[in-house]
Amino acid sequence: MTRIVHDGDHVLATDATVADSFLAKARGLMFRRSFPDGSALVFPFGGAASRTLHMVGVPFDIDAIWLREGRVERVARLSAWTGLGRATADTVIELPAGAANGVDEGDVVRVDEA
Fold first, then answer.
1. Per-residue buried b or exposed e for 38-71, using 16+ beta carbons within 10 Å of the residue's own CB
2. What is the sign, positive or negative, of the torsion defined by CA atoms of 85, 31, 82, 62?
3. Could you report the per-residue pLDDT of 18-49, keeping only the tens digit for each?
4. Which whole-number Å values give the CA distances from 112 to 8, 34, 71, in the listed order?
5. Given 3-state DSSP classes, what are the helix, strand and coil percentages for the chain, each rounded to the nearest 5?
6. pTM
7. How far is CA 36 from the centre of its chain?
8. What is the pLDDT averaged over residues 44-55?
9. Pfam families this protein is in (predicted)?
10. Residue 114 reports pLDDT greater than 80
């Protein structure tokens, strides 16, 4: 089980999926019907660069967190179908809308893999 933890002990998600292939990263959340509370989608990259998220084909709002070396670079709520976000990151995490409430730039967020 992979989980997402904010600032030491606040669990943001208990059921995170790591998008570790090109296809999984390209598909993301597109065409899913739901994104249950407690879930997350993690996009690990080989290094920090500008990372763009779009919501084309995603019928629900999400929270997105861009990380660089475990520190939050940006947090954004992206709207269904039309949302767009970009920031420099080596990891991007997508969560159900509201799950990233209280997460701010500069905070530490980690992906714990069991």
1. bbbbbbeeeebeebebebeebebbbbbbbbbeee
2. negative
3. 998 888 888 888 778 889 999 999 999 999 99
4. 11, 23, 15
5. 5, 55, 40
6. 0.94
7. 14
8. 95
9. DUF192
10. no
For 34, other C-beta atoms within 10 Å of its C-beta total 10
For the chain, give the number of residues: 114
What is residue 42's DSSP assignment? E
Q: Copy the structure tokens of residue 54.
A: 């779009």
| Beta-bridge partner residues of 105 | none
**Cα–Cα distance measured from residue 91 to residue 72, given in angstroms and rounded to the nearest whole number:** 10
At 46, list the tokens. Answer: 């080989």
Domains and CATH numbers, the chain: 2-99 (2.60.120.1140)
